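Submission sheet (multi-component)
Chains listed below:
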Amino acid sequence: MDVRKTVPVLMLAAAFAFGGAACGDKTVTSAPPATQAPVDGSHEQASLDTSAADADLTQVDQLLRDIESDLNAVDQDAATPEGDPAQ
Amino acid sequence: MKLRTLVTATAVTVTLALTPAVAIAQTRDRSQAQDARMDRVKSRCLAAIDRRQQAIVELNNRLDNRSNLSDDHRAALKDIDDHTSSGLASLANQIQSEDNAQELRAECRQIVDDYRVFVLVRPRARLVVASDRELAAVAKLRDAADRIQTKIDEATHDGKDTSKAEADLAKMRSAIDTAAQHASVVYDEVIHVTPATFSAGALSAGRDDTHAARDAIRDAAKAGHAAVQDLRSARSASAT
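Outcome: structure written.
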């Protein structure tokens, strides 16, 4: 093959190949990420917030119950057996 | 005549001979009885000291096992226990070697009057333990109240009606303050009482404040539960 004919053909092929690759990248970039939130995300977030609030309130309730349990120990400590002063 | 005189003389002689022996025997019996009485008194007094020493050992175990007791309060109470225990040990030695009945009686009185283990040392320590536990509960209640306040703020931000929760939280905080006031004065009310200054009712103020703090803590916890329930209701009311 004549070299003068072969070089332009190779350059043209390289140009097509480069352009195709660029177009492929563009396509991939524009695709939506797999982790994107669904359309009703705000509702789910509100649900999560409510659950977290309930969990917090349950924790507070438990804390208050623990404090009430501690009061039984206070009663035991305060209910001191005392001897007769004359004994 | 001669025989009568002889019999009389013999009787007098025998009587004179026997009288000192009887007197000596009676004195010996009295002395033995007194020794036995002293031994019985000593046993009772030493047993009374043992009971008090045992009570102090149990009290020290209690002080060691109470995580809510402040270091200062624990140290002060254990110092009193140590002095009481060593004093009673010395008194036990004194009683053991006592040979005077009157002194023995006085030493046995000291077990009660000079140490007051059952009416002062032990109940005082237990009141301090109880009030420190109450102060720990007050700290937990303040934490719970702050957390409820946070949830109220969030609910208010979300447009919920939190007026009931706020009212109950206010009740809770007021009860917490009452509990703190009562529990925080107990130590000072009881720690300076000594066996010498002790009288009936010397611990009454400490006991009354301990009970008042306990009742206020119960009220605060109840109001806290109510505030939590109010918040749940507010949230569910707006969700429907």
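Remark: The first helix of chain B runs from residue 2 to 65.
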